[in-house]
Amino acid sequence: MEPIKKAKIKYLILHWAVILIWIACIFVFSAQPVKESNGLSLKVTKIIITAAAFVIPIHRDAGTIERLAVKYNGFIRKLAHVTIYFLLGLLLTRTLRISGMKGKKIYLLALLLCLGRIPSGVCSNGAERANI
Asked: Where are the transmembrane segments (predicted)?
């Protein structure tokens, strides 16, 4: 096998491995118990609010940060989901393009693969998560 073809195959395998790792991370975080997931997202929301307090005039006392974290936690969670799936879509489109696929088929297939993952994530613990 030519060295160039060998290098391209290794490159493709690396790209698909990154996608599989990303999907595995999505599954792991989706499988978290509700309280654990909500606790983690509250911590992240508090960090974001504390960092924003250096730019936006917000009192940095613990009570204010806690109230704002509870208020914006749902928004931060939705933003995280959108970002995670957007990055998955970017990884898929790049890898499909490298694989030799061309045109609008790349975006359609990437979209279908991302949408195929969403229902299983939404349905698992969906009713339970709605009561956070």
From this structure: 12-34, 79-100
